[in-house]
Amino acid sequence: MIGVGKMKQYGNVLDKPLNKGKQEVSLSAFAFLFSELVQYNQTQVDNIGELERRLEDAGYAVGARVLELLCHRDKGNRRETRLLGILSFVHSTVWKVLFGKVADSLEKGTEHEDEYMISEKELLVNKFISIPKDMGTFNCGAFVAGIVRGVLDGAGFPAVVTAHFVPMEGQQRPRTTILIKFAEEVLRREARLG
Amino acid sequence: MAAIYSLYIINKSGGLIYYKDYGSAGRMDTNDSLRVASLWHSMHAISQQLSPVSGCLGIELLQADTFDLHCFQSLTGTKFFVVCEPGAQHMENLLKFVYELYTDYVLKNPFYEMEMPIRCELFDINLTQAVQKDRVAFLGR
Amino acid sequence: MARVAPRTGDAIFANVERVNAELFTLTYGAVVRQLLTDLEEVEEVNKQLDQMGYNIGIRLIDEFLAKSNVSRCNDFRETTDVIAKVGFKMFLGVTASVTNWDADGTCCSIVLEDNPLVDFVELPDNCQGLYYCNILSGVIRGALDMVSMKTEVTWLRDVLRGDDVFELQVKLLKHVPEEYPYKDDE
């Protein structure tokens, strides 16, 4: 993969101290950038499935980097080895850093042992986005699903992660659920660890 | 109670990109509203030329016996105007607020193509809330 | 109608919703990475970043106008001043400065020390021709285009290429105000 951040002979980026993560930009700046990311990807695909995949891939690299950054800065390089630990990390720490709040909820799937759901009334990335009727159930939160997959994969918990709109009774707008389906090896390991 | 009859947004070429009627008797069909928008666009431009000094920003308020029309044009040429009850207050603030809703829920929508008709659910939802609030505010007077 | 006074960059930034700059930085990194994978040629990526910036600029300008209450700028000096002091601050949370004016007052430099696009970034050897922040040049060009100013925006200095600051040259090519009757009327 083309590396942004590899060693260069005359740079001292690795010596630069990691900032504390307190710098901010306006939500608008992020929203415009994200909108353009979606628009660019629309020009590169023929169908909605491909658009979802490309957004997820874009998010994946972000997730991998977020994991490195947070493990080093916020967790003193401690590694999560248990399923609930890593889910809690995503739902609380990762969400707080990226979106300014912990996720609304974390639930275990009722129908399948390997499924967990992180839900949000409205994902930050979707705040200004209205999906046209002809795009069906498409959710730009695919980018966030990619971020989650990147974090989980990097931490040794491979999973399939997707974003879904879930209509809510009595609510005008559906909420978004990030569905995480862990690979078999993760569940086997979890069972072994007791 | 001061009421808002209708709201229009015109792009910088004079094309109607948004029209919302709030239950007035004068509700127009699509062709009429397009024509009216285009005419208003021209009138607005002519008014700038009628000005005795340069730098005129064009018609901001038009008063008739049965309605007032308030118009706001951004520096990018997009026009927001509202047809309301004569003497309705705070319409400039409403227009500015609609402008901000436009910059949020229309311009940040990756599925919105510039200069085209606005079909953004979030814009509709937030606009409806804003207009209702306006009506409610007047009730308290 | 009373004109509202223009607001400072700091005042606006304090009042808008803000997000962690890291989300922004990492997302931008993802954008650049996607372009490098899709287009491969660094020159093509530079062009695409500029185009994406332009697409953002033509939309961002209305939010800038709505929130800052600036009225029509009297000259190009005022325009670039407001971009540096208000524009950069309200969106990126950083202030830029304007220097190097030419005699005509149509060409100047906008200088940035802090740049949230480039945290943690280093250019690898095979990307030395990349203008990593080229989206910014497009944003400025697009924004000014929508208020009738055609400009040329180029990089003079780039921290990722070894300079100590980011310096963008902004050159006013022409003022093209839309006057009635418009050329596409019957």
Q: Predict the CATH topology of chain A.
A: Muramoyl-pentapeptide Carboxypeptidase, domain 2
Radius of gyration of chain B from CA coordinates: 15 Å
SS-based class of chain B: alpha+beta
Any idea what the CATH architecture of chain A is? 2-Layer Sandwich
* Shape descriptor of chain B: globular
SSE blueprint and pairings:
The complex is a heterotrimer of chains A (194), B (141) and C (186).
Chain A: E1 24-26, H1 27-43, H2 48-73, H3 83-99, E2 105-108, E3 115-120, H4 142-154, E4 159-166, E5 175-182, H5 184-193
Antiparallel strand pairs in A: 2-3, 3-5, 4-5
Helix pairs in contact in A: 1-2, 2-4
Chain B: E1 4-10, E2 16-21, H1 30-50, E3 61-63, E4 68-73, E5 79-84, H2 91-106, H3 121-139
Antiparallel strand pairs in B: 1-2, 1-5, 3-4, 4-5
Helix pairs in contact in B: 2-3
Chain C: H1 9-15, E1 18-20, H2 21-39, H3 42-68, H4 76-92, E2 96-99, E3 107-112, H5 134-146, E4 149-157, E5 166-175
Antiparallel strand pairs in C: 2-3, 3-5, 4-5
Helix pairs in contact in C: 1-4, 2-3, 3-5
Structure in words:
The complex is a heterotrimer of chains A (194), B (141) and C (186). Chain A has helices at residues 27-43, 48-73, 83-99, 142-154, 184-193, and strands spanning 24-26, 105-108, 115-120, 159-166, 175-182. Chain A is α+β, with helices and mostly antiparallel strands and 194 residues long. Chain A has a 4-stranded antiparallel sheet with strand order 2-3-5-4. In chain A, β4 (159-166) and β5 (175-182) form a beta hairpin. The termini of chain A are far apart. Mean pLDDT of chain A is 89; it is low at 1-11. Chain B is an alpha+beta fold and 141 residues long. In chain B, 40% of the residues lie in helices and 20% in strands. Chain B has 3 helices and 5 strands. The model of chain B has no long low-confidence stretch (mean pLDDT 88). Chain C has a single domain (9-175), classed as Muramoyl-pentapeptide Carboxypeptidase, domain 2, CATH 3.30.1380. A 4-stranded antiparallel sheet of chain C has the order 2-3-5-4, with helices on one face. In chain C, β2 (96-99) and β3 form a beta hairpin. The radius of gyration of chain C is 17 Å and the shape is globular. Classes of the chains: A alpha+beta (194), B alpha+beta (141), C alpha+beta (186). The interface between A and C is large, with 45 and 46 residues. β1 (24-26) of chain A pairs antiparallel with β1 of chain C, so a sheet runs across the interface.
